[in-house]
Design a protein that fits this description.
β4, α5 and β5 form a beta-alpha-beta unit. It is built from 6 helices and 6 strands, in the order βαβααβαβαβαβ. It is of the alpha/beta class.
C-alpha cells in the first residue's frame, strides 16, 4: 500500500546514494522533499557563513535534481516543529523520513524534541542511520564491526522518478 511521506533533508543534500529517497520511492506514494533553514541552528557558535554558502549551493543542485525526477524541493525557514506541523496538516502526511544527523548538541536536542512531537501527534518519524555512524551508543563495543558492515554495504538506489505533490503546500 502506498502512503505519502515527507522527506526531511538535514545535512545529506544529495539525490544519489540517499537511502531515505530510495525508501520514499519504494513506498509508492507522493513524496514531499523538505529542507528547513533553522535560524536557531544557524545561530549556534559552530555555524558559519562559509557553511551556509555550501548548503545554499547544495540546495540549488538538489532542487534541480529533485524537480527533474518529479518532486521539487520545498525550502522553509523557521522552527522545525512548526514547519513540520504546518506541512503535515496542509498535506495530511502522517510519516516523516530522514537520515540521522550527526551534529552538535543543539541538533541532537532538536531531534529529541521532534521525536516527542511526532509521537504525541500520531506521526511516524523514521530516522535511517548514517552509514558507519551510530548515534546514541552506550559504549564502543561492536562499533568497528558495525562500521565495517556499513562501508561494505551496497549504495542506495537513486530513484529515477518520484511522485511529488502537484502544488507547493504552502
Amino acid at each position: 500500500m502506498s502512503s505519502d511521506v515527507l522527506v526531511w533533508f538535514k545535512r545529506d543534500l544529495r539525490l544519489q546514494d540517499n537511502p531515505v529517497l530510495a525508501l520514499a520511492a519504494a513506498r509508492g506514494g507522493r513524496v514531499l522533499p523538505l529542507f528547513i533553514a533553522e535560524p536557531e541552528g544557524w545561530a549556534q557558535p559552530d555555524a558559519s557563513a562559509r557553511q551556509w554558502r555550501f548548503v545554499a549551493e547544495s540546495l540549488a543542485t538538489l532542487r534541480e535534481d529533485l524537480a527533474r525526477i518529479g518532486a521539487p524541493l520545498i525550502v522553509r525557514t523557521g522552527p522545525t516543529r512548526d514547519v513540520l506541523a504546518d506541512l503535515c496538516a496542509a498535506t495530511g502526511i502522517r510519516e516523516i523520513l530522514s537520515l540521522e544527523e550527526t551534529g552538535n548538541g543543539w541538533s541532537y536536542a532538536r531531534d529529541r524534541a521532534i521525536g516527542a512531537w511526532a509521537r504525541a501527534s500520531g506521526i511516524t518519524w523514521t530516522e535511517l542511520p548514517q552509514p558507519g555512524v551510530v548515534r546514541r551508543l552506550k559504549g564502543r563495543d561492536g562499533w568497528a564491526a558495525r562500521r565495517e558492515r556499513a562501508t561494505r554495504a551496497d549504495a542506495a538506489e537513486t530513484p529515477e522518478a518520484l511522485y511529488g505533490f502537484p502544488f507547493d503546500p504552502g
